[in-house]
TrEMBL record:
SUPFAM superfamilies: Ribbon-helix-helix. Residues 1-52 are annotated as: Disordered. InterPro entries: Arc_DNA-bd_dom (IPR005569), Arc_rbn_hlx_hlx (IPR013321), Ribbon_hlx_hlx (IPR010985). Pfam families: Arc. This is YlcI/YnfO family protein. Residues 52-90 form the Arc-like DNA binding domain.
């Protein structure tokens, strides 16, 4: 059975390795339906960019953590800030 005969189950999440194998097949790279702009949890549009500087060693640690979580650097930093803001006593 080739990869284009297999469709990912809508309810079973794939691992990054399974996603990579599935989308490596050109048959699975064809967009389906009209384009959709997704917003996480229906949250409002993001603000203008906010420039933030980090020491190089700290930035490298953040990059490694973001990559380990399979997230963009910006997304990882946003989630870290959200986490800090929801901590008790914050």
């Amino acid at each position: 059975m080739s990869t284009h005969d297999q469709e990912p189950a809508a309810t079973a999440p794939m691992t990054p390795e399974q996603e990579n194998a599935f989308y490596a097949d050109p048959h699975n790279q064809t967009p389906q339906g009209p384009p959709v702009r997704r917003r996480r949890g229906g949250t409002a549009k993001l603000s203008d960019p906010v420039p933030v500087r980090f020491p190089e060693d700290l930035l490298e640690q953040v990059r490694r953590r973001a990559a380990a979580d399979d997230r963009s650097l910006s997304n990882w930093i946003r989630r870290a800030v959200e986490h800090e803001l929801t901590r008790p006593g914050a």
